[in-house]
Each structure stands twice: as structure tokens, then as C-alpha cells.
Design goal:
Elements: H1 10-20, E1 34-42, E2 47-54, E3 61-68, E4 72-77, E5 83-91, E6 96-100, E7 103-105, H2 112-124, E8 126-127, E9 132-137, E10 148-153, E11 157-158, E12 170-176, H3 180-185, H4 192-208
Parallel strand pairs: 4-10
Antiparallel strand pairs: 1-2, 2-3, 4-7, 5-6, 5-12, 8-11, 9-10
Length: 225
């Protein structure tokens, strides 16, 4: 039987190890210099800008498209009985109905906290306490430049009629806070930013309500029970 050479080039292996070695937290990559900014196409709720940037690794220049998007807000509204105010609505991207929390774009000149209170009122008819910011994420940094803040509004009650936009058809649904993890697990709630909002909520309740009703003796937030 012919012998198979399985010897390893240790010098190559060493170089590969050097390339793939993880860097420390105090190290960082260089950014990509902008060579030229091209045309921007406006599509109403977002604009697309064509940007040429140079790779700091290869020196190659490529054209990248960035979506210029207004800031967004998500609102977790809790009733006095700790039920979550949700909205059921049709989503064109999925071509089906989804369960989400209220949310929307921040209007020019508007503070995100005001947007949170406004969107909750318009989409659900509920109003409540002073909005508390509990989190911030960048929805898709690969192609978008905006941020989405999550706001908690406590003691929410139905006080107004719904004011949906022309392109909205909404149904208001409330569910106990303790049921939210199961709704996510079953895929009833699948919007990534909504799931993220409940992550922020759980962290917030664990921190703010520590030692109160939201945390049991094991130190776990009530939402996860």
C-alpha cells in the first residue's frame, strides 16, 4: 500500500495561527477611509447613499450602499396588572400578520421620548407614565446608519381612540408579561427588534426592581418565571 504523506508544514501552521489569533479588548481595527460620496436616492422612509471606501487591509476601493434611516423607537407598555400592550399587524415583507410592540420613526425635531409616547397612543390608544429609556441598538449596521431605542412606559391604560397611519391596520392585544418568553419561543413574536426590546426589559427589571416583586428569591426577573 502506498504511503500517504501527512506531514505538516509547521511554519505555515504557525503563520495561520498568528493570523487567526484573537485580539485583546484594547486593540482595534482601523476604519475604512471614504474616497468619494456619490449620489443619494431618496425613497421616502429611507435614502440610499453610494459611498466609495478604501479597505485598510488590501487598499482596494469598493462602492458600498448605505441606507440613511431616521431613528426608531420601540415601546414596551405595561398595564397596572403587568400585561404587555401588543399590536397585531400585517407586514408586507413577510406577507403575513405579526405580533409586535408599538414603535415608529422619530419625526424631525422630535425627542425620542416624545416619539415613544406618541406612537403608543396612536397605535394602541394607550397612555401611561413618563417614558424610561431602557436600551439602544443599531438595527443593521452592515447597511443602515440609524439607531433604535427601547422605552418602558408603566401604568398604561386605554385612554384614546387608535390613530393608525393610512398604511396601517392594527389590532391591540394584551398578554401577561410572564407569557412573553413563550410567545417568543413559539415564534408568535419573531420581530428581532421586539425580541431585543424584551431582553432590555428583563435586564431593566432585574436592575431597577431588585428586591421588589419583579425579582424572586432566586434573583430571576418575574418575566422569566
Amino acid at each position: 500500500m502506498a504511503q500517504i504523506d501527512i506531514s505538516i508544514d509547521t511554519s505555515t501552521a504557525a503563520r495561520s495561527s498568528e493570523v487567526s489569533a484573537p485580539q485583546g479588548d484594547d486593540e482595534t481595527l482601523p476604519t475604512w477611509p471614504t474616497v468619494r460620496r456619490g449620489a443619494t436616492d431618496d425613497y421616502g422612509i429611507f435614502a440610499v447613499e453610494n459611498i466609495e471606501r478604501r479597505s485598510p487591509r488590501t487598499g482596494a476601493v469598493g462602492t458600498y450602499r448605505v441606507l440613511r434611516v431616521p431613528a426608531w423607537t420601540n415601546i414596551v407598555a405595561l398595564t397596572p396588572s403587568r400585561e404587555v400592550v401588543l399590536v397585531e399587524q400585517y407586514r408586507h415583507g413577510l406577507d403575513r400578520l405579526t405580533w409586535e410592540i408599538p414603535g415608529g420613526m422619530v419625526d424631525p425635531g422630535e425627542e425620542p421620548a416624545a416619539t415613544a409616547a406618541r406612537e403608543l397612543r396612536e397605535e394602541t390608544g394607550y397612555t401611561g407614565g413618563v417614558p424610561e429609556q431602557i436600551g439602544l441598538v443599531h438595527p443593521n449596521p452592515a447597511i443602515q446608519d440609524n439607531e433604535c431605542t427601547t422605552w418602558l412606559i408603566r401604568d398604561a391604560l386605554p385612554t384614546h381612540p387608535l390613530e393608525p397611519d393610512d398604511g396601517e391596520h392594527l389590532r391591540v392585544v394584551t398578554r401577561p408579561l410572564a407569557e412573553i418568553p413563550d410567545l417568543v419561543q413559539r415564534g408568535k413574536i419573531s420581530h428581532s427588534l421586539v425580541v431585543c426590546a424584551f431582553f432590555w426589559l428583563e435586564r431593566h427589571l432585574a436592575r431597577v426592581d431588585l428586591g421588589a416583586s419583579a425579582v424572586d428569591a432566586a434573583g430571576e426577573p418575574e418575566m422569566s418565571r
